[in-house]
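Is this the right way to post structure tokens for a design question? Let me know if I should format differently. Anyway, here goes:
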């Protein structure tokens, strides 16, 4: 299926499917509020039928913006946005801890054969202006399948430490808050995904039972308000993310269906890890956006047809 890609320079990249639905808007202009951790985000993300499957600046967490790369605890800085968790004191408004991710440009940008593939160069900047890390971020929109009612977004990160000391990656759980290990690539769903159904290759379970577990993929399906329709999102790891000989650190699912719908590929759920000066790490992820309430067999069959 053909894609139409528009680029409003300095602001965003938008992808529209052949049927006329804008399925992805990737916004890279700096947010106005530094407390929300200025960084690029994808919103709105839509199914081919036009159902919105991301939330933006919800009243409970204004810094939740669609699909974003985040780091909630990084050597004392917060590249997530909003309040910072301090053990024994809870969540505190500490603006001096909130960093940002600066868009430096696109080093690759191609549209061909029904695919958009771009590489974005970013710099992670601590609150007081020090450049801490350099990121090469890859986004690829592909496998737009009108018959299946689905399309795929691949999101990769290659991050290099620019400091003269290690970067320590953690989460609220590594800082002492139980089962709150959010960090890494994070999705915030719209309100109508609240209370949705979550499942993995081996389990139909409440989101609470899947919190902190591991696995190659996790699916989240919900019924929309207003429209008589369901949508399904599938979050999938590239094989090397879960390969202990290649991954820098074990990944776990951060997932909630209530009180807010959210999923993160957490790279530091239970334990901190360090990135030495000059060293790099890399992860690849896939998000399948589908119309309908898919079951486990349909998810597994669709993923099997999308080679990495």
């Amino acid at each position: 299926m053909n894609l139409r890609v528009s680029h409003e320079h300095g602001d965003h990249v938008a992808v529209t499917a052949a049927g006329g639905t804008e399925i992805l808007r990737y916004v890279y202009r700096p947010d106005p509020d530094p407390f929300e951790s200025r960084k690029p985000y994808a919103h709105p993300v839509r199914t081919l039928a036009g159902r919105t499957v991301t939330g933006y600046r919800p009243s409970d967490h204004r810094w939740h913006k669609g699909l974003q790369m985040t780091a909630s605890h990084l050597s004392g800085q917060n590249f997530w946005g909003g309040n910072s968790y301090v053990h024994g004191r809870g969540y505190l408004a500490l603006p001096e801890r909130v960093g940002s991710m600066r868009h430096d440009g696109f080093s690759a940008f191609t549209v061909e054969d029904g695919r958009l593939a771009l590489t974005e160069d970013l710099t992670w900047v601590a609150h007081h202006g020090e450049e801490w890390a350099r990121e090469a971020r890859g986004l690829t929109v592909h496998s737009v399948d009108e018959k299946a009612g689905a399309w795929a977004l691949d999101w990769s990160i290659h991050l290099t430490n620019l400091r003269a000391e290690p970067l320590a990656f953690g989460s609220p759980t590594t800082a002492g808050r139980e089962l709150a290990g959010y960090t890494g690539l994070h999705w915030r769903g719209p309100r109508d995904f609240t209370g949705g159904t979550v499942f993995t290759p081996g389990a139909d379970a409440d989101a609470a039972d899947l919190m902190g577990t591991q696995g190659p993929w996790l699916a989240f399906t919900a019924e929309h308000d207003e429209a008589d329709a369901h949508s399904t999102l599938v979050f999938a790891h590239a094989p090397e993310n879960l390969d202990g000989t290649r991954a820098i650190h074990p990944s776990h699912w951060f997932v909630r269906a209530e009180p807010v719908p959210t999923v993160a590929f957490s790279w530091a759920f239970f334990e901190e890890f360090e990135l030495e000066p000059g060293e790099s790490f890399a992860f690849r992820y896939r998000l399948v956006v589908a119309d309908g309430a898919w079951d486990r067999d349909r998810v597994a069959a669709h993923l099997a047809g999308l080679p990495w």
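Format looks fine. Someone answered above. Worth noting: The longest strand covers residues 131-145. The helical segments are 207-210, 296-304.
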